[in-house]
Specification:
single chain, 253 residues, alpha/beta, Rossmann fold, four-stranded parallel sheet, two-stranded antiparallel sheet, globular, disordered N terminus
Length: 253
Amino acid sequence: MSPGARPGPVARAARGVLDALLPRRCLACGTVVEGTGAGGVCAACWPGLAFLGPPFCACCGFPFEFDAGENSLCGACSARSPAYGRARAVFAYDEASRSMVLGYKHADRTDAAPAFGAWLARAGAALLEDADLVAPVPLHRTRLIRRRYNQSALLAQAAARAAGRRCVPDLLRRTRRTRSQGGLGASARRRNVQGAFALREEWREAVRGARVVLVDDVLTTGATVEACARCLTGAGAASVDVLTLARVVRPGN
């Protein structure tokens, strides 16, 4: 069946049986979603999601309260240029979105990946249109064994599929186990992940001169994605942009 074709009667019947046996639940609150829902989110939760769009910082994507003009930078990016080129996120990481992100990350809601991938493809369209490679922030093998999946890899694969781009899930690896970034300040986060990532040798030629889009679940201070970006640019990547599902938005962020 072509991508734009309507599903046939057998497919619709199978979908109906599956929905009856395993009803789709809201990605945010867990209630049963009638019909297709708004990307898997119920009507009560959808209005609470703070989707991010212009005007925002031309570099890190931090939202502005008013239009400061094309290519305007936030105070943080003006004071210190990040290691990546541009960063974009789907929505703000706040009380409304936290349960959805944490459920996906820690409670096996991997069924959310296709919807999240479509959202990422839309939010990061300007980044993905010229991307040669899409890659996730890697987990250390011990954390991957415990969690059983890399949430960022699923996001990268779904976003790349939606945008028609090449995804390389194992482009980077963690060279050592790091502390959780939760609860750490900006400086401590940077020290925690300094030198913690390496390019896999089999991808060295592919990265040289490539435009890479790095995918992660949440952007807080940017320490993790900056460490990954430095690794990639050091290996010869032409550019590294960052695409995340959510980002923390607060004064001084």
